[in-house]
Write a structure and sequence with these properties.
Blueprint (H helix, E strand, L loop, with lengths): L2 H5 L24 H9 L10 H4 L20 H6 E3 L12 E3 L5 E4 L5 H14 L8 E2 L17 E10 L4 E7 L4 H13 L18 E8 L4 E4 L11 E7 L2 E5 L9 E5 L4 E4 L1 H4 L3 E6 L20 H23 L25 H4 L2 E8 L19
Helix pairs in contact: 5-8
The chain binds 2-oxoglutaric acid.
GO molecular function: broad specificity oxidative DNA demethylase activity; ferrous iron binding; oxidative RNA demethylase activity
Keywords: Dioxygenase, Iron, Metal-binding, Oxidoreductase
Protein name: 2OG-Fe(II) oxygenase, putative
């Protein structure tokens, strides 16, 4: 793929230009950021290519920071991880900053399995309804299978609508923002409001006002960009990962600085504050490892079962659907030590068809505050979903 082709993979809400702030054209392929994107991107294996080139397909993930399994990190990375001291009554099990990327904070496995199912269902069946939410390429067609090497990145938006052309928001243009998503992000921000280590800071009012829902099939990537269109950039950008894991790169305000690489896995939440709120970041790689609890159950075993067994086997898919219903009616928002906020939804989640889309798919819901002041109208009743 050419450099220009790669750049076009950027969603238009991102600042992803080919010129420096002084207006000078720059050779992006030479930047340290671009080198790291190339290091982690998925290369299509070419059986005709010479052996030396084919080896590029075997990505070395040794340097990728993994907060889910601290022991597998390099000593250098371990030395940069810092556990955040949580409040005594905290609902989450752990949070980390990383000294290499000031202002970034990780909540590994912060969202429990039922909640991940709930948000995948919402992302695939509710947020993709363009008559309710202003979407750009979010239609999912179960009958069209895309190859990992030519898959398309899609997205949807919630809350304030983004003016893609002028790269700004208009206060009078909005769709409803799911209040349970705001509640969840507020409680995570509150967990760490007092933390200032490694330049992380989340003090003061926080309200989720807009979100981009990104759908990343294996083989897609999001190129280096900054998210700087929001009026208030002092408030954290909260980003939740669902489904397949990814390699996420976060650098500085300069493409010439080498970024750090992190695994983001299903259920992880990351908060960007301070210098990281306006830093270049990218998603060069999606791994084909969607957790089983988000997939359709495996097909029934072929061997003829006894009568009793047959009954049990036939119940399995229904049980799975039951799990979903439970998730939608009353569930804990945060994966951690106890009960937190409970969710309610009028959405019919009896259907498990969303699971059919999850194989090879990562969903990212990244949530931003746009204005300094609170905007309660965004969390309006279902009937008034759009302005
Ligand atoms: O998918 C992610 O983790 C990041 C997405 C992102 O950078 C964006 O939508 O601006």
């Amino acid at each position: 793929m050419s450099e220009a082709g790669d750049l076009s993979a950027c969603a238009p809400h991102h600042v992803c230009s080919k010129a420096t702030s002084s207006g000078q054209a720059t050779d992006l392929s030479a930047t340290a950021f671009r080198q790291e994107e190339k290091r982690y991107k998925l290369y299509k294996p070419d059986p005709k290519a010479p052996k030396a080139l084919r080896r590029r397909c075997d990505t070395d993930f040794t340097d990728v920071v993994d907060f889910r399994d601290i022991s597998r990190n390099t000593e250098t990375n371990k030395n940069m991880m810092r556990l955040v001291e949580l409040q005594p009554n905290s609902q989450i099990s752990a949070a980390y900053t990383f000294s290499g990327v000031p202002g970034l904070l990780f909540f590994p496995n912060a969202v429990c399995e039922e909640q991940q199912s709930y948000w995948c269902h919402q992302a695939l069946h509710r947020f993709t309804q363009s008559e309710r939410f202003p979407n750009n390429k979010s239609t999912l067609d179960a009958n069209v299978s895309t190859s990992a090497y030519d898959a398309t990145l899609r997205w949807a938006t919630l809350g304030f609508k983004y003016d893609w052309t002028n790269r700004l928001y208009h206060k009078e243009r909005w769709a409803v923002f799911p209040s349970e998503l705001n509640t969840m992000m507020c409680s995570l921000v509150n967990e760490v409001a007092a933390v200032t280590q490694d330049q992380f800071s989340a003090a003061g009012l926080y309200e989720s006002q807009t979100a981009i829902v990104n759908y990343f099939p294996v083989g897609t990537m999001m190129m280096a960009h900054q998210d700087v269109s929001e009026v208030c950039l002092e408030k954290p950008l909260m980003s939740m990962s669902l489904g397949c894991s990814c390699v996420f790169l976060m650098g500085t305000e300069k493409r010439d600085d080498k970024p750090f690489a992190f695994f983001l896995r299903s259920g992880d939440v990351v908060a960007f504050t301070g210098p990281s709120r306006i830093a270049y970041h990218a998603v060069p790689r999606i791994l084909d490892d969607c957790p089983e609890y988000l997939l359709l159950p495996p097909p029934a075993v072929v061997a003829a079962p006894h009568k009793g067994q047959q009954q049990q086997q036939q119940q399995k898919p229904a049980d799975r659907e039951g799990d979903d219903s439970a998730a939608a009616t009353s569930t804990s928002v945060i994966n951690g030590k106890g009960n937190t906020t409970s969710l309610s939804s009028s959405v019919d989640v009896a259907s498990s068809s969303w699971r059919g889309h999850m194989k090879g798919l990562r969903i990212n819901i990244n949530v931003r505050q746009v204005y300094d002041e609170s905007c309660p109208f965004l969390f309006a009743a279902e009937g008034e979903e759009q302005r």
